[in-house]
């Protein structure tokens, strides 16, 4: 009886989990196998994804920008963490606090800030005429904004692990006559590999799932998966929520498969 009382506090949390996660997920999966007009069971939504080049292009574009921003964000986070470790603990705390703010500064506010700085009449373009050729509302501008919020997010996940790399390990390796490259390849990298893989997955998922920033900057000009799902649900001309559900399920399966492969590799 006492054990049952301990779990009563979880009832509100479980209720929210079921209401706002489990139930919408079930409706999304069920809706992906139904027609928008009649509600009949079908696989036509998934068939249309593989046969309609427009949806396939949206998936490929999202995959491409997610991979590029993930790799650049991970590299930038590693470099920034290495620089942070050379500073005092007090300075490290201040910079990680700023990184936390930058990681959460995304969506419409981030897009608006970049428009003020690098838009057609942006402040930096007025001060630096060499930037006039840069188009913020293109793939390059979208990639820049993605990398901007990917780097501080990567720092938040990598910094604790990289701080655990002991300086004595490098000194011991140097005493044994090994090079710095050999030390990072055989000692530091194996220690950091789980954190690097986990951070990479998070950055990739963040890049794939970003919607507000992309829509605020480019609207429907850049064909991305999240923009297509939103347009199918809200309906620019007419709504196709079941097709949007199918695209969401495919996106979820991609992320689950990726996480399963990484977890299996780590177990080996």
Structure description:
It is a single chain. With 268 residues, the protein is an all-alpha fold. It is built from 13 helices and no strands. The longest helix is centred in the N-terminal third of the chain and has 32 residues, at 53-84. The relative contact order is 0.13. The mean pLDDT is 85.
Summary keywords:
0% strand; 268 residues; mainly alpha; single chain
Short description:
The protein is an all-alpha fold. The protein has 13 helices and no strands.
Topology:
Blueprint lengths: L1 H5 L4 H22 L11 H8 L1 H32 L4 H16 L3 H11 L4 H5 L11 H25 L3 H9 L4 H30 L2 H7 L6 H10 L6 H27 L1
Helix pairs in contact: 2-13, 3-4, 4-8, 4-10, 4-12, 5-8, 6-11, 8-10, 8-11, 9-10, 10-13, 12-13
N to C succession of SSEs? HHHHHHHHHHHHH
Low-confidence spans: none
Task: Note the overall shape.
Answer: globular
DSSP helical segment count:
13
First-to-last CA distance: 42 Å
Mean pLDDT comes to 85
| Strand elements, count | 0
Structural category: mainly alpha
**Rg calculated over all Cα atoms:** 23 Å
**Helix fraction bin:** over 70%
Strand percentage: under 5%
The biggest sheet amounts to:
none
Oligomer: single chain
